[in-house]
């Protein structure tokens, strides 16, 4: 599983930094933007995969863990810097957990919401990934 963290360009200033996301910052056109906030520390978000959609997750405030699974291996990444983005490609299972107080997770998505793009059961995800790897 290839994990990719991108640097969000920032302009440093003693009065406060500015992070800038423009066309050359990410590898896809942004078709949907949303953010998670007021998530209790004991809650888990995500728990699904996408067939087509790609995402970038950014911890705008606070921190949280992202658990990624490809059907064979598992990786846990802690996001806690607003100038770093985690790229999550399609066909990866994702779970978000361990939210700090005041954490805000910004999500930049390559597609608009489409329920048919979701795989919401982990066993179905493993079957889907295994059947697609056999057809390549």
UniProtKB/TrEMBL annotation:
Pfam families: FdtA. Residues 1-129 form the Sugar 3,4-ketoisomerase QdtA cupin domain. This is WxcM-like, C-terminal. It comes from Flavobacterium fluvii.
């Amino acid at each position: 599983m290839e994990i990719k963290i991108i640097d969000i360009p920032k302009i440093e200033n003693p009065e406060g930094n500015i992070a800038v996301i423009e066309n050359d910052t990410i590898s896809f056109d942004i078709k949907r933007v949303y953010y998670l906030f007021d998530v209790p520390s004991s809650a888990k978000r995500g728990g699904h995969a996408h067939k087509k959609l790609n995402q970038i997750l950014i911890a705008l405030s606070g921190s949280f863990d992202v658990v990624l699974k490809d059907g064979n291996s598992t990786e846990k990444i802690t996001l806690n810097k607003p100038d770093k983005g985690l790229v999550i490609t399609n066909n990866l299972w994702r779970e978000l957990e361990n939210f700090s107080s005041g954490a805000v997770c910004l999500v930049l998505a390559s597609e608009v919401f489409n329920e048919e793009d979701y795989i919401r059961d982990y066993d179905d995800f493993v079957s889907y990934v295994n059947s697609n790897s056999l057809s390549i």
